[in-house]
Every structure is written in C-alpha cells, then in structure tokens.
Amino acid sequence: MQNNSQGAPAVSRRRRSLSIASASLAARIGMIVVLIYLLVALFAPFLAPFGEAQVASSIPYAPPDGTFLLGTDQLGRDQFSRLIYGARNSMGIALATTLISFTVGGLVGVISAVLGGWVDQLISRLVDVIMAIPQLIFALILLSIAGSSIPNLILIIALLDSTRVFRVSRSVAMNVAAMEFIEAAHLRGERLPWIIRREVLPNIMPTLVAEFGLRFCFAFLTISALSFLGLGIQPPTADWGSMVREASALIAYGNLTLFIPAGAIAVLTISVNLIVDWFLDKASGLRNGQ
Amino acid sequence: MASDTGHLLEIRGLRIEGESDGQWSTLLHGVDLTLRRGEVLGLVGESGAGKSTLGLAALGHIRPGCRITGGSVRFDGIDLLALPESDRLKLRGSRISYVAQSAAASFNPAHALLPQTVETAVQHRLMPLQTARQVAVAQYRRLQLPKPDTIGTRYPHQVSGGQLQRVMTAMAMHCGPDLIVFDEPTTALDVTTQVEVLAAIREAVEARGTAAIYITHDLAVVAQMAHRIMVMRHGSLVEEAPTSAILAAPQEEYTRSLWAVRELVKPDQPSAAAPLMTIEGLDFSYGRNGAKALEGITLTIPRGRTLAVVGESGSGKSTLGRVIAGLNVPTAGRITLDGQSLPPALRLRSRDLRRRIQLVHQSADTALNPRQTVAELIARPLELFHRLRGRATAARVNELLDMIELGPRYADRLPSELSGGQKQRVNIARGLAAGPELMICDEVTSALDQLVQEGILRMLLDLQAQLGISYFFITHDISTVRAIADEVVVMNRGRIVESGPRAEVLSPPHHPYTELLLGSTPEMRPDWLTDVLAARKAGQQAES
Fold first, then answer.
1. CA distance linking residue B477 with residue B444, whole number of Å
2. What is the DSSP letter of A199?
3. Which residues does chain B have within 8 Å of residue A4's beta carbon, measured at their own beta carbons?
4. Do both B98 and B226 map to the same domain?
5. CATH number of the domain that A167 lies in?
6. Which residues of chain A are within 8 Å of residue B417 when distances are taken between CB atoms?
7. What is the value of pTM for the model shown?
8. Which domain holds residue B149?
9. CB of B197 closer than 8 Å to CB of B135
10. What is the pLDDT of residues A197-216, one digit of tens each?
11. B198 with B327, same domain?
12. Residue A13 contacts B, CB cutoff 8 Å
C-alpha cells in the first residue's frame, strides 16, 4: 500500500473541464465574434431596419446615407437589412448541413472502423467513388437535377460533406479500435452500440468537435459559392453568397460593396477557426492526461 | 579547475525542475555526481527517480518543459551549462554521446545503418567520409555484429533488436568519445539477446577506456557493467558505493528493499490439484497457409494454482493465451474447461463461459479506456455478468478496490491520474469483477518497476489464496516465475519444450533451451557475465 499510494497526484475533477477562463486571447476574440453573429442571426427581425425582401427605396444602388447605412442594391433593397437577414440564412443552413453530415458521416465512420473487414472495405470504396468527383461540380449537377430548394441544398451538401467526415472519423476511430480496451470489451461480449457509445466516441469526440468547426466553415463557403453560381439560395432570400454575386458586377464601376458580405464570411470563418485551434490544443492536453 | 581533480565529469548540486500543467515540481534535488576517465557508473532507481534526467544533464541537455535552477555540470573542465548551444552541439557526438533505450525509435527507418553511423563524424567534419566508414566497420566488428563489412548497407528494420542496439552503440562510439551515457540499452530486449549486447558493450567500453554512465532499473544488469553504483529515488541520491560493496552490504533501507525483491518465492503447494482446464494437441496458424504459431500444445491448468508460461518474444506464449481467451481460433486440438468442451471462437461461448475466463492485458495504459473512471471500468463486468445495479454495484466496486489494496477513494479517478502499478491493479480488478475461475495474465508485471512488481505479485498470490482462482501466467522473467508459479511450461517457437512442477523445471537437468533461458537471466553477482561468457566459450570449443 505504501509504495503505490504516492505515485499518482491527486487531481480534482474540475481541472479536466474545458473552462472558458483558460482560453487564449485569440480564442476569446473568436468566441465574442461568433456570439455576436449568433445574436444577430437570432434577432434579425428586430435589428434590421427594413424587411428582407422589402424594396425600401426607389433608387437602386444608392450610396450609404443616414437611412440606408450600407446603401441599396439593384432593386432598391436596404443592404444593411439584407446583411443581417443573410446571417440568419447562411449560418442556419451551414449549421443544419454540418449537423446532418456529422451524424451520418461520423456514425458510419465509427461503425466502419469498429467492424472492419469487408463492411469497412465496401463503405470506404463507395466513399472513394463519391469523393473522386469534385465536390462543387457534383453539387451543381445534383442541384440542377433536383432543383435548388433550401432542403435540397442542405441534403446535397450534407451528403457530400459527410464523405469527408467519414474519412476523419474512421481514421481516428481506427486508432481507438486498435486499443486493448476495445478487445477487452469484445471479450466481455459487449454489443456494437455500447462499444461505439461508451468506448470509442468519448475518445474521438475532441477531434470530431474540432472537425465540426472546420466543416462548418467549409459548408458555409460551399453554400456561398453555390449561391454565387446561382444554384444556392434563391432570391429574394438574402444570403451572403448571393449578395457577393449581386454586387460583383459593380466592382468594374469602382463600387466596393461586395466586400461587406465577403468580409462577413471571412470574419466568421477566421473566428470559428480561432476557437477550433484553442479547442484542439486543449483536447490534446486532456488526452495526454495533463 | 575541475580538470585538476582528474574528474572527467563533475556535477555539483544539480537542481532541475519540470513543468506540468503550469506547476513546477523538482525532479532533481541538488545531485552530485563525479566520474573519472574510463570509469563506468551505474545509475539505479525506479521510474521517476530522475535517472534519465541526470543522464541527459551529463550531455548538457535538458528535456523540453524542464529547467535548471541550480548547480553545475563540468565536463573535462568545461562548464556545459554556460556553454553556448552551438558549442555544446559540437561536443555531443564527438566527445560525449548517448545510447537510447529504444534503438528502433532512434534510427531513421528511411536510411541505411552505415550513413547514420557516420553522420555525426561527417557533419562535424571530424574525419573524411572514407575514414569514417572504415572506423564504423571496425566498430561493428568490435561489437561482434554479424558480417560487419556489409551490415551497414541494411536498413533498421532488416536487423534484429539486439543488433540494432549494438549498431547504436557503434554509432555512439564512432568518434571515440570520452563519455557515453547508456539509457536502459537492454531493457527492451529478450534475456538471451541481452547477454550478447551486454558483453559487446562491456568489451567495447573497456577496450577504448571510455567512461560511461549506465542507467537501468535492473540491478543484476548494472552489477555486471558498473564499477560504482548510485542508487536514486525521488530525484535524490540514496546511496553510492563501489559495486561489490553495495551488493554485499547495502547501507540504506531503500537499497536493501530493492535487493530483496528478487527473493520472493511462492511456497511449494501440496501437489495433486484437480485440473481446471486441459488443452490437447492444439495447433494455430495466422492466415490460411501461414506458418504454425502454435504446434501440438498439450497442457493442464490445475484448479486454484498458477501455470506460468515462459519464453522469449515470438515463442507463441501470448498467442496461446489469446487462443484460450477465444480471440484466436485454433486450427486443431481441443480445450476443455471443467470437463466440458470449450467452444473455440469467442462468439460461440456463452456469457457464463466468457465470465469464467478473463484475460488481463500486459499494458494497462491501452487496456483501460482513458475516458472512464476507475469505478466505471470495474462496474461494467458487474453489470454485465452479475446484473448488479446502482448501490449494489458501487458497494462491490469498493470491495474490489479494497481487494486490490487501493481503497474506495480511487473510484473517481481516471487512469491518467494513477501510477503504472495502480493502473495495473485496476486492470486486474476489472478481471476479478467478472468472478473468473481462470485468469490469463499476459506479462502483467513486466512493464513495472521491481518494487511495484513485487507488490502486485504478492497481491495476486493473496487473491489466489482467498478466491481459489487459477492463473495462466505469461512471462519472460524467471524471477517472476519463482515468485508466482506452481507449474511451469517453457515455450520456444510455438512448441512446448519442457513442462512440469516449478521445482522440477527450474532445477537440473534442463532441456537445452531452458538451460539457455535460465543461464541468460542476469544474477546479482558481479562476475556473472564473465562466468557465462567463459562457460559458453568453453562449450563452443568443446563442440568444435
């Protein structure tokens, strides 16, 4: 008893938690920005001075003034209001997409890794086939066949994204599946759902959460790109990608309004990445038991 | 000046601190160390004693996350700690060098051995490439490597672990250093290989008159290698004396306790215990047409006793354990448990059969889910096999924690918050929770320090006496066999070469392989290695 009680430090439970107090300055800035975006998205109808599709002015392309803070677009709609509603649409769709792709891709990836053998081979090769086709072009084809409604958009991007999530979750789950505690679970006769839920998932969660942040940004960019190409979110729904597209024609005339929605996308992407970086750092520390 | 004292290395009052989680703790509490030219100093202690930290400090190197808070390191009159990093780099490899524990992890797998051996000399422009190669081949020859002229063209994966360890020594000796630090160079090797490597290192060091610091936790090994021994514990020096003196008459109690570990011997049991499991004519091979990993295995595991399976890595002892556990399906033969035939594949075994046979893995680090607390880990078999719920589970978990001598206060810990020995106890407790009749223990003590090993072996003996469990105990260590076994099976290349009661197997006459295995296990006498080498030489001459 004497010689084995002294080896381990007494560590309290709370040291293992991810506290915001331990976040770096960069991560805190990221969190504040994301929080502001979320608030704007949630309270869009209260914050926006005009409606999403409301033609508020008779003058198209009006320059910014006291009423129209960022001027008006080609139909005389208030740019500032559309930017606020755009947050809601763009972020909502990106979030839905990412959630679906993680549920599908993550689960299939883990099952594939734990079962191994021909099941794993079959699923992996199928995913390879889908991944061999460039994502944006594949999405364009599917959208032009299925029609570009918002549910279609979400499902198609989620499907394509889930192949990437599958890859990540399968590879991290493979490392865990090779551990002896998985073998010990098999020896006890544990069933697959228990092994996945209790033995594998807790060990790969940090990686998956970090990946979630990154994929969220990518989904965002994909939607923006599709909208920019005219197959994403359809007018008059405001989203940042379509706003960039609509304003892009003006750049030839020295009008730089396209940088406002583009900047909104860039700032969100960077902020999410700042949080993800911090989380990854923290999670790897936790995994090493420090 | 330090060089006036005739000391090659002089460490004075060295204090090193290490950081973890923003807190600094002291790793070395002001340690002194002196080394004369040509002297071999053994550093002995458990893991965490600060041996490696001190050994690296002799190279003027501090691991990342550590800092020096006091003391000095003088090498041949040069203050290593005050030296700019670029000058220290010049010294390392040319005048001071290092041999790490894991040669496999230290070589670059993408390059052949010879270029890696000469790299330092060429980088430091100490000798032209052609000369460097000749010197390297001469070193290979001195370290008794097979085919010294051509072995350098091989890649690290193409030579054995023992050979790789010798190539690494050749690399360390290549520039003719004044000091070599050996950090557990033979710990990862089989005993029969260890003898060769020890002999080669000792001869090479003696021939060149190189001073060395030999770090190990194995007292018998250091007794062969060192002129003087320093025993360390918790970052401080416990005792220091010439080898023969410290072996004959250790002064400190801690040193004596280290010495005493090897003397644990299980008392002889009255024989004729009923058989719990019998195995007949068992064959196993990996893949459909693979070579046989197990061939014609026939043995009996007595009820309430321990059957130890001894052999080197690759002998098939772990494979046999996995076959009994149902993880590997044998290609021929039959296993009976308590007179009933045991289905070979795990999925064909009933819940009750799975409960009665438990496998305890070697490494608790990978066998315990790092995200589950001790209580969760131990509770699962209780829920699964005994249908316990809620309070009843918690009560039984606490009982089990008492049985493994940890106590209920450990219930909420995660494995990362336990020491190596504690983790292994939890690993064993999880096996016990199922309430098994047979526990397969796969090298459960081999990764642990000797004092901790002894604690666990004693606990296993107590548990056996209380619960009447049978152990199928897989090990490569003869002193572990003495401590725990009633019956012994010696395996080599997938076959059983000798079996019987412990006293019979461990006393002459032996099967030649058993003889080799026993003869290769280091003993505490300083002359042991010399005697073994002389005996082998005589044997070879007699043969030819």
1. 11
2. I
3. 405-406, 419, 421-422, 425, 452, 455
4. yes
5. 1.10.3720.10
6. 8-11, 289
7. 0.79
8. 37-63+84-259
9. no
10. 999 998 998 888 888 888 88
11. no
12. yes
